[in-house]
Each structure stands twice: as C-alpha cells, then as structure tokens.
C-alpha cells in the first residue's frame, strides 16, 4: 500500500528496497495462500475475534492477501472499515460490505489502490475501531513497524492518540518480514502484535 510511515533515512530506504524486492519475487499463488493462512491465524487474537469494528485495508501487489480476512470478518458480523487516500496523504474511511463495495483507484504518482466505493465516513471514523490492521514491510522484536514511507498511517496513529482511542494495532506480514531490528525515529509508535501465516506474536510493552 502507499499508506505509511515517513520516508526515513538511508537505513529505512535500503531495508524497504530489500523487502520489496523479495515480495516482487512471490507468485500470485503464494500471495493467495498467505492470505488464507492469515485469515485463519488472525482470529487467534481474542480482540479481533470479538471485535465489533475493525479498520483494515485491501492488499495490493505482493502484500499478503487480505480479502479472505475481510470476508471472514464480514461473515461474522464485524463492521469493517477501509481507507481511502486523500490528496494530503491522510486517510478517509468507508465501510466494506463485500467485494462489490471496493473500486480500484489510481492516485497520481502512486500505485493503484482498492478503496471503498460507498459513502465516506471521515478521517475520525478510525477512532471507533476495536482493532486496526496496518500494512507494513517489516516489524521487529519491539513491535516497531516499517511502512512504505508515505506517512498516512503515522497520521492515523496520531489521530488515535489525540482521541484517547486505544485499539489493538496489528501488522500483517510474511514470516520472513519479522526481523531483528527496524530503524526507528522519535515519532514512530510500536504495534501490539503481528500476524503471519505461521501464527500470532505479541510484543511486550507495546
């Protein structure tokens, strides 16, 4: 996704290139299989299994496929919110009601994203979520997440903090993207857990 943390320094940029290169080598079948496994594993998180509103996203490119999880949540009666990218890189939100409720949108200078086609609910809608699923490229042992570098989810996390909202923050990744160290900056905030095809890991103190 084009939705994520600031571009950062050379260490972040080099790590992004390495991880994106690995994703580019994945097969479509591998991406789909990872998505099916993630959908099963994610519900091992009690907060997600019992959640009433979940802010999520539709995967693009080599990201682990999220549609199986979105459909599983919807079938369980969960209200699923999806982001829509605004011109300033902030995120608005809309509701996911099935595969026909998303459109592919190409933003200038960015990859095409899948966004909700229904009414926009406003950037503050995310503050009502019990769980926020975040895209990323890697996470380390302290829960520090490496994003794509666009800054959108930094704004989301800041908005949650301002509102006093404390949803469970979860990043969805491949097993190989849980790494020893992610370069962090002062404004970076850790996530609470990561879901990979092999299971769930929580981060102490996050």
Structure description:
By secondary structure, this protein is of the alpha/beta class. The protein has helices at 10-24, 28-42, 46-49, 67-75, 152-163, and strands spanning 53-55, 79-85, 91-96, 102-106, 112-116, 131-134, 138-139, 145-146, 168-172, 193-196, 199-202. It has a seven-stranded mixed sheet with strand order 3-2-1-6-9-10-11. A two-stranded antiparallel ribbon has the order 4-5. Helix 2 packs parallel to helix 4. It is globular and about 40 Å long. It starts with 9 loop residues before the first helix and ends with a strand. The model is unreliable at 1-7 (pLDDT under 50).
How much of the sequence lies in strands comes to 15-25%
Shape: globular
Computed structural class: alpha/beta
CA distance, first residue to last residue: 23 Å
Topology order in helix (H) and strand (E) letters: HHHEHEEEEEEEHEEE
Which features does this protein show?
alpha/beta; seven-stranded mixed beta sheet; disordered N terminus; 206 residues
